[in-house]
Amino acid sequence: MRLAAPAKINLFLEILGKRDDGYHDLRTILVPLSLADEIEIERREGEGIETVMQMDEIPAVVGIEMAGSEDNLATRAARLLQEATGCRAGARIHIRKRIPVGGGLGGGSSDAAAVLCGLNRLWGTGLSRDRLLELGARLGSDVPALLYGGAVVAEGRGERVRPAVRPEEAARSRWWGVVVHPGFGISTADMYRRYRPPLTNGSAFYHTLLIALATGDVHRAGRSLFNGLEETVFAKYPFLRLVVEGLRDEGALGAMVSGSGSSVFALAADEAHARRLQQRLAERVEADCWSRLVQTMPDGVMAAHDPLEVRV
Ligand code: C5P
């Protein structure tokens, strides 16, 4: 079975407060991207789970250690499904990484989401979407949103997910953009620890972004991007402010850090505009940043066609 596990960006991220369990309550709008890891899953006899990662297409990332096969989030997703269902089958999971790691693009979470959906079919364990979302939340805060697919609003720790737009509006906001990864990773936990509430309240942007998604208005979306963690990220990594401001100066409709970083994205009017931004940024920032042209996938994948795109 082959699956695409898309990256995500947060168009909006507001932190509402700290909880007793150490996590933060948040409200975020998250959209999947055309940039995706490719996953192949084979059923194996016995209960063994083996995950093999092919990393040759992503940049080397400073400051991030990749988990071995046993601790990998994809392996943990498979084990969790075994535990939850009593399933005795095993699997070999091959992941060709295209999403840089440690960059706030949700790659590891998306792999876990894809493995949960894929194995639920391959093993015939038949869990409902709600049950999969519940298991996903135990693996990581972004997993439920990526499991759900499409543009979503996630609240709580990230586990309460709903579509950001009505089904008939979803296809309108397939937008072009650029994603930039600076070559170093950022620890999400560290950014949440350092977080101090920003002076700007994001709520107005939240409502404007929902309208922009519903109407497909990328210009409005570009003006309304909001990330309450961004100043915290800039305080420790000033280079990222240069990247964001550089993209804005070069005419991006909007540019922002994704989640807790380290990746930055920019929205563009169309493909040619996105390509120009990518080139100008490369000329401007002397460091050798990895970047990709991307499209948002607001109508993707589970929302429209059941769990992620499965091509058997
Ligand atoms: O859930 P996940 O493993 O992605 O979160 C990584 C870290 O980010 C958590 O250990 C926590 O410190 C922080 N976090 C948080 N509030 C959230 C999500 C993550 O404090 N809603």
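^ cytidine-5'-monophosphate complex. Residues 23-24, 26, 140-142, 157-158, 188-189, 192 surround cytidine-5'-monophosphate (CB under 6 Å). The two ends are 5 Å apart (CA to CA).
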